[in-house]
Amino acid sequence: MEPKRLNWQEFFIPRLVKASGYSAILFVALIFFFLLREGLPALGEVELDVLFSQRWYPIEAHYGILPLITGSLLVTVGAMLVALPFGIATAVFMSEIAPRWLLEILKPLVELLGGLPSVVLGFLGILLLSPFLRTSLDLPTGLTALAGALLLGGIAVPTIVSIAEDALDAVPYSYREGAWAMGATRWQTIWRVTLPAARSGVLTAVMLGIGRTIGETMAVMMVTGNAPVLALKLESIFHPVRTMTATIAAEMGEVASGSVHYHVLFFIGLVLFLISLAVNIAASSVVFRSKKRAERVLS
Amino acid sequence: MKFTHWLAAVLILLTTACGGADGGEAGTPTIVSIENKGSDTIVNLALAWAEFYQEIHPEVRISVTGGGSGTGIAALINGTVGIANASRQIKDEERQQALENGIDPVEFIIARDAIAVIVHPDNPVDRLTLQQVADIYSGKILNWQEVGGEDRPIVCLSRETNSGTHVYFLETVLRLGDKENTTLFSTETLLLPSSEGIINEVRQNPNAIGYDGLGYVPDDLKILALAVDESSDYVLPMISTVNDKTYPVARDLYMYTAGQPTGAVAAYLEWILSPEAQTIVAELGFVPILTEEP
Fold it and tell me: Integer distance in angstroms from the first to the last C-alpha of chain B?
């Protein structure tokens, strides 16, 4: 009786675990297939020079998605400029410098920050951040790419901090002791030993941060003003922009399924998917390369 | 979209199942639920009506959601709501799509609404012609100085394109009611997802100009008087000026049903057109449709 039940478990549990593992691949494939099926007809229905023109006004058949792409990229790059240094510095402080009692306060706070719904942050953005930006920088309006970038940076920081901190924690203590024994200062140890050793984990943190930023919708829709202006110059950061995610969110409810507008919105989803795919591939290739180099150094 | 259909089907099953169980136990007639969705302009009014109506008819449950006129009509076309609210008339292509799905939309005019053009209370400008408003929104006038104000840039605020108010404003103000006119909102126009977004930005930004349904404009914002052209009178929006048609930017508000309504939906719509329901219209800052008749 006893061994039989064990056999039964032996049979099902590994397969269940395997199935959940493979399901991730299946879901990504299904989503990609669905996006392709709903998005690709847009290429046939809208001429390419219209699709890549500079005017987005879908109710009059202006389907130029360039302003939306530049808007998303501008806000994302801006957010990463805020979140990367701040997030990694916080992670380093928490894992290498902060005393234990401070860590016990900081860690739950960061996690709490990460759990805040973005719509709440959006409200803060509308009520505090955007009026502050308008008066302090003397802008026509505070609802700009800058407000979106700052807010998104704030949203991405907790993600980056908690993952990067885990990665730094996983670096064996002997690495640090070795560095100190060779006379390295604390800063040299962090910058030359600990951070490079945790590189792949920190990079994952950065990647997830970028993912969180480019996919964020609600907060961005509330503070960036959503004006579909082509953002090519540096000063565009002080102007309103419209991101791809905000466009999909604002207009998806309106379209009748199967219409041209519907297909174009899915096409935008496809572009978003490809962008995050590109970010992932770029990041993982860097991770793999760094591993090879580390192996070389160790051997 | 299929997923939404499934979800709607499950929800409907659940609600009818619960309704049936309630009716069986208490011995009261089965509860009828009406799904009411669409224009954000109408949503407060629809909510007030629904609350009042459910009090006098406890057997009817009305759930009201917003999302924009386009959203409501899309839901009607997809067959997920009983009544769609719209602050614009149904478009020909929408009617066509509905007919293809076997749904014949029937129109009811349920109230009237004036679109107020609003600015920050400190803005010295208090009146504009329609042409000036059109030039501001299409990007031809960029500074308040050009219309008699201070030397400040103009920030134009608009609702999103799925808003009936947006489409109405485009046709009536930007294009001055001319069907051949193809003026568009300038790309710099901020498209905000909600009425609150517009009101909030106008409240704190002296550069801003916005528009919204009169019923939504709070007292602390400045409403501009509008004139059809320079020679005519500048008129502020209010019930009397909307009804005598001197205020130029006023429109009818609609409800659409799938086919001629029957049963509870018909009774509800009949009540909406009654004087009792129309007093609620006036209380919320909209314009009742029955005031012309004594």
Answer: 48
Q: Is B124:B218 a contact under the CB 8 Å cutoff?
A: no
Distance of alpha carbon A70 from alpha carbon A188, whole angstroms: 39
Interface check for B97 against chain A (CB to CB < 8 A): the answer is yes
Q: Which residue of A has its CA nearest to B207?
A: A140
Burial (0-12, 13-18, 19+ Cβ within 10 Å), B55: exposed
The helix/strand/coil state of B228 is: coil
- Tell me whether residues B68 and A257 touch, CB distance under 8 A: no
Nearest to B155 among A141, A253, A255 (CB): A141
| 3-class secondary-structure state, position A298 | helix
Element containing residue A56 per DSSP (H, E): strand A56-57
Using one digit for the tens of pLDDT, what is the confidence trace for A30-53? 999 999 999 999 888 888 888 888
Cα distances from B9 to residues A19, A150, A222, B14, B82, in angstroms, run 30, 42, 32, 9, 14
Whether residue A141 and residue B190 make contact (CB cut-off 8 A), yes or no, is yes
Q: What is the pLDDT of residues A163-209, one digit of tens each?
A: 999 999 999 999 999 999 999 898 999 998 999 999 888 988 888 88
Segments of chain B assigned E as strands: 32-38, 60-65, 83-86, 105-119, 127-129, 155-159, 190-192, 208-213, 222-223, 225-227, 250-258
Contact A130, A219 (CB under 8 A): no
- B65 and A CB contact within 8 Å: no
Mutation pick from A56, A59, A255, A264 vs chain B, by most beta carbons of B within 10 Å, is A59
Q: Report if pTM > 0.80.
A: no
pLDDT in tens, B220-272: 999 999 998 888 889 999 888 888 888 988 888 999 999 898 888 999 999 99
Helix (H, G, I), strand (E, B) or coil at B210: strand
Check residue B167 and give its pLDDT: 87
- Which is nearest to B155 in space by CA: A240, A186, A55, A113? A240
The interface predicted TM-score of the complex, written ipTM, equals: 0.79
B143 phi and psi angles, rounded to 5 deg: -130, 140
